[in-house]
């Protein structure tokens, strides 16, 4: 096999909580974030440069914006980010969002360019405090789900009729009927159950065959699943335990980028996984589909 199929660490930044990998096709660059490091990264595979923008607060996800620049979900809510100036602008507070209790986490845009992002509690408690929000192109915000543990892993089926969603705490991938005309979701059901010994499901992406790729937090791997059967298709091992997100990138969308975390690792654990927090890439023998941009 060619060397390019081997998994490699590509950016020498060690994020505390690397996350949010997404390919920006118009720029041919990969955006990713460090939630705890309060940074938005733009990695250019052509030059190897990994530009960092300090946004001064926890940032849970990043998506491209159709008119240029990026959209973020940060601790307090949704925000826009100008890539040239690095200037961030917060949108009005999402309904019912209390930054004293929860922060924004993973998110993605749907095929019609609405921006979905979910929240999670800042500290563990008896009740799930997270929600899933939807930011429409006109700026309206809707609460789509309540009582979420850790909102993660959003992906839409290729026919635009199903939303896949991961509440990491539940160790499963759920599906909803999704109406692309209205952005409504209904009929929640579980399509993939993750065995406890595989770690916890975190970020996800869909490939050109409609198969789901799921980053396995504490699972030392990224996994490929068939959401129609619930079956595991492939496991790619990483040299780090906390694999957090995945996204296809490159001119052919055949390179899978992966983020990882080093938070909460002991000195001993860090010594055993010195690449924890790095961005990785591998050519897994599958291709992705273009990421959707925010249309507002
Ligand atoms: Ca995540």
Going across the biggest sheet, name each strand in turn.
Answer: 1-24-23-22
Give the helix level as a range of percent. under 10%
Bound molecules: calcium ion
Strand proportion, as a percent range, falls in over 45%
Radius of gyration: 17 Å
> Architecture, according to CATH?
6 Propeller
Please give the CATH class: Mainly Beta
Main beta-sheet strand count, sense and barrel state: 4 strands, antiparallel
Q: Overall pLDDT, averaged?
A: 96
Counting helices, strands and paired strands, the structural category is: mainly beta
Structural domain tally: 1
**Which fold does the CATH topology refer to?**
Neuraminidase
Low-confidence stretches: none
Q: Number of helical runs?
A: 1
Head-to-tail CA distance between termini? 44 Å
Secondary-structure element order, as H and E? EEEEEEEEEEEEEEEEEEEEEEEHE
* Envelope shape: globular
Task: Walk me through this protein's architecture.
By secondary structure, the chain is mostly beta strands. It has one domain (8-282): 6 Propeller (Neuraminidase). It is 2% helix and 50% strand. The protein is built from one helix and 24 strands. The protein has one helix spanning 267-272, and strands at residues 8-11, 18-24, 29-34, 39-43, 50-54, 59-64, 70-74, 77-81, 88-90, 102-109, 115-121, 130-135, 141-148, 151-156, 162-167, 172-179, 184-193, 200-206, 212-217, 221-226, 231-237, 243-249, 255-260, 279-282. Strands 1-24-23-22 form a four-stranded antiparallel beta sheet, with no helix packed on it. Strands 2-3-4-5 form a four-stranded antiparallel beta sheet, with no helix packed on it. It has a four-stranded antiparallel beta sheet with strand order 6-7-8-9, with no helix packed on it. Strand 16 and strand 17 (184-193) form a beta hairpin. The chain is globular. The relative contact order is 0.17. The model has no long low-confidence stretch (mean pLDDT 96). Bound molecules: calcium ion (CA). Residues 19, 105-106, 152, 202-203, 244-245 line the site of calcium ion (CA).
